[in-house]
């Protein structure tokens, strides 16, 4: 039996010392020139090891949070005004089956509010966290989409109080499977005419981190339900 020989990768020789232990083991095995025939179980092990290699690598000279953070999701990006971003929001909200956690700096787009009302009507549990300065709340018309949404069954709402700092998120998660974020507000002009971006992120880790942050801001002691206009009920 011919002895196995290692293949020299001169440009990558410094990497193994920076990789986690499991990935270094994989690296040493990948350096073999020949491999015996592998069983299905062995192939599955190799695939798992490859996943560890590409998801656990952190640069050895990492300086800050951005450098230390591993890639954890697939991302699709869209831009306005080339694309009507509100259409993407409506389609995503329309696909919800169980839960939406929704954080909005501004919520004035009737089409988005109507999509949320329809989702609540299907039995989707919706939590809405708002900045207190909501232009849509200034109307006394209780039949407006804003007040109809906040009064809907299956909808909980809170607003941030207790300081001057904004609740500036424009993000929500749907069913623990998709995260929407980006610069576009949930207004009429923001996703249609302004220069904005919208990111759809698929990845359990990314969505779990958003949910953890949402739970933290949702649970702030100073939060209160969004008050109806002029004390109306």
Report on this model:
It is a single chain. With 233 residues, the chain is of the alpha/beta class. The chain folds into 2 domains: 10-67, no CATH class; 74-231, Endonuclease Chain A (Endonuclease, Chain A, 2-Layer Sandwich). It is 32% helix and 18% strand. The chain has 7 helices and 7 strands. The longest helix is centred in the N-terminal third of the chain and has 17 residues, at 40-56. The model is unreliable at 7-20 (pLDDT under 50).
The DSSP helix count reads 7
Architecture (CATH level 2) name of the largest domain: 2-Layer Sandwich
Anisotropy-based shape: elongated
Supply Rg: 24 Å
The secondary-structure class comes to: alpha/beta
CATH superfamily label of the largest domain = Endonuclease Chain A
Mean pLDDT: 81
Give the secondary structure arrangement, pairings included:
Blueprint lengths: L20 H10 L9 H17 L8 H4 L5 E7 L4 H10 L4 E6 L5 H12 L3 E6 L14 H7 L3 E5 L10 E5 L3 E5 L13 E7 L1 H15 L15
Parallel strand pairs: 2-3, 3-4
Antiparallel strand pairs: 1-7, 2-5, 5-6, 6-7
Helix pairs in contact: 1-2, 4-5, 5-6
What's the short version?
This protein has 233 residues and is of the alpha/beta class.
Key terms:
233 residues, alpha/beta, Endonuclease, Chain A, 7-stranded mixed β-sheet
């Amino acid at each position: 039996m011919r002895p196995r020989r290692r293949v020299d990768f001169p440009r990558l020789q410094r990497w193994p010392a920076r990789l986690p232990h499991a990935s270094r083991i994989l690296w040493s095995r990948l350096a073999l020139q020949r491999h015996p025939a592998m069983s299905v179980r062995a192939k599955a092990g190799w695939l798992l090891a490859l996943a560890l290699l590409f998801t656990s690598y952190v640069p050895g000279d990492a300086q800050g949070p951005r450098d230390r953070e591993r890639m954890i999701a697939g991302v699709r990006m869209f831009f306005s005004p080339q694309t009507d971003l509100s259409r993407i929001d409506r389609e995503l909200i329309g696909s919800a089956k169980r839960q939406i956690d929704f954080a909005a700096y501004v919520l004035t787009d009737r089409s988005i509010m109507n999509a949320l009302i329809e989702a609540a009507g299907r039995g989707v549990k919706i939590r809405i966290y708002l900045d207190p300065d909501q232009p849509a709340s200034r109307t006394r018309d209780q039949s407006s989409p804003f007040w109809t949404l906040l009064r809907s069954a299956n909808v909980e709402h809170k607003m941030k109080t207790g300081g001057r700092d904004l609740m500036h998120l424009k993000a929500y998660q749907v069913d623990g499977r998709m995260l929407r974020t980006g610069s576009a507000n949930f207004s009429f002009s923001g996703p249609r005419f302004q220069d904005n971006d919208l990111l759809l992120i698929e990845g359990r880790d990314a969505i779990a981190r958003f949910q953890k942050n949402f739970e933290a801001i949702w649970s702030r002691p100073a939060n209160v339900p969004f008050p109806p206009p002029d004390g109306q009920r």
